[in-house]
């Protein structure tokens, strides 16, 4: 099946999709992105993603390439052309094309790229059974709330995890507290069943899955506490888990060498995972 991409106003075959050599996204990582899950052909929490995109763009003073309605039409069309009913769409907006010079160009038009990919990682047995994470120092810049394409530290973190046979790397700040994973938010469950995750700030990316899950948990009567925690605390917690657009809610059963509880997904995590799966299920298929 041929794949399609959207590049600056055109739908083009994925194999030949190109941006300019002086696109600032390539030269300076001067751009932002969003990854939106597609379930049953629907974009999951699209509005929350558009709101975060707007925050990222305005933090970097990049002009939005288009309004929400046409943006959504492009995202849907790329999903449709790639026959993605279960998977993700990827959107990247760069400041634009201009002769290489660090300061903002005066009149660059933002460039925009959209791709889509099939996949149902949330149902993969390895993720359902729980994963191991490693911990590493957080070496990133101080505006992690901006969903910037400048992901080198995240790439190194994920590679360190992969080399260690782990699923994810939990990054730890100078105070010894977990910030987040390389591409996910980190959570633990206290003895009394309260769920803990780091509060929104410049220190973490406020995950859309995180935001949605907090809402679902509270509606279900589960206490959610937004505070930072240490890897040691999480390893000794009743449960731990992580969240992201691409993997939803994943039990964490080992942190470095420490097995969390009995090494199996816990009841609170299972409940949250079920709540989230029910939330994303296409209308009509909800329990
Ligand atoms: N934290 C980081 C650093 C990420 O890159 C991501 C997702 O890519 C997340 C958290 C989770 O965010 P979301 O739930 O919006 O996918």
Walkthrough of the structure:
There is one protein chain. With 287 residues, the chain is of the alpha+beta class. It is built from 8 helices and 15 strands. The protein has helices at 24-28, 46-59, 68-81, 125-129, 152-163, 208-219, 231-235, 267-280, and strands spanning 4-7, 10-13, 31-39, 42-43, 87-94, 111-118, 131-137, 168-172, 178-181, 185-189, 195-197, 224-226, 239-244, 248-255, 258-259. Strands 7, 8, 9, 10, 11, 12, 13, 14 and 15 form a 9-stranded mixed β-sheet that branches. Strands 2-1-6-5-3-4 form a 6-stranded antiparallel β-sheet. Helix 5 links the parallel strand 7 and strand 8 (168-172). The two termini are 34 Å apart. 40% of the residues are buried. The model has no long low-confidence stretch (mean pLDDT 96). It binds pyridoxal-5'-phosphate (PLP). Pyridoxal-5'-phosphate (PLP) binds next to helix 6 and strand 13.
Tell me roughly what share of residues is in helical segments.
25-40%
Given the structure, what is the number of helices? Answer: 8
Name the ligand types: pyridoxal-5'-phosphate
- Which percent range describes the beta-strand content? 25-35%
Biggest β-sheet strands, sense, barrel: 9 strands, mixed
**Structural class label:** alpha+beta
Q: Name the helix and strand elements from N-terminus to C-terminus, one letter apiece.
A: EEHEEHHEEHEHEEEEHEHEEEH
Cα separation of the termini: 34 Å
Shape: globular
- The gyration radius over C-alpha positions equals 19 Å
Mean pLDDT: 96
Number of strands: 15
* Poorly predicted runs of 5 or more residues: none
């Amino acid at each position: 099946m041929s794949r399609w991409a959207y590049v600056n106003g055109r739908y083009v075959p994925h194999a030949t999709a190109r941006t300019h050599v002086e696109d600032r996204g390539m030269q300076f990582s001067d751009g932002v992105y969003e990854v939106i899950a597609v379930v049953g052909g629907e974009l999951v929490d699209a509005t929350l993603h558009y709101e975060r995109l707007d925050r990222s763009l305005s933090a970097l003073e990049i002009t939005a390439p288009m309004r929400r309605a046409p943006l959504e039409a492009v995202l849907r069309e790329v999903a449709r052309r790639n026959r993605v009913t279960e998977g993700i769409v990827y959107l990247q907006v760069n400041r634009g094309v201009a002769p290489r010079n660090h300061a903002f160009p005066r009149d660059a038009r933002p460039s925009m790229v959209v791709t889509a990919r099939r996949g149902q990682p949330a149902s993969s047995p390895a993720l359902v059974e729980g994963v191991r994470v490693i911990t590493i120092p957080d070496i990133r810049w101080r505006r992690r709330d901006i969903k910037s394409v400048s992901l080198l530290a995240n790439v190194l973190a994920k590679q360190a995890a992969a080399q260690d046979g782990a699923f994810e790397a939990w990054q730890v700040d100078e105070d010894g507290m977990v910030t987040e994973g390389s591409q996910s938010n980190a959570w633990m469950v206290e003895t009394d069943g309260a769920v803990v995750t780091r509060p929104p700030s410049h220190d973490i990316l406020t995950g859309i899955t995180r935001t949605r899950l907090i809402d679902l948990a509270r509606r279900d009567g589960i206490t959610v506490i937004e505070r930072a925690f240490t890897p040691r605390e999480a390893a000794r917690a009743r449960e731990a888990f992580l969240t992201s657009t691409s993997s939803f809610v994943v039990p964490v059963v080992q942190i470095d060498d420490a097995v969390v509880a009995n090494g199996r997904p816990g009841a609170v995590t299972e409940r949250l995972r079920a709540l989230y799966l029910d939330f994303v299920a296409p209308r009509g298929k909800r329990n």
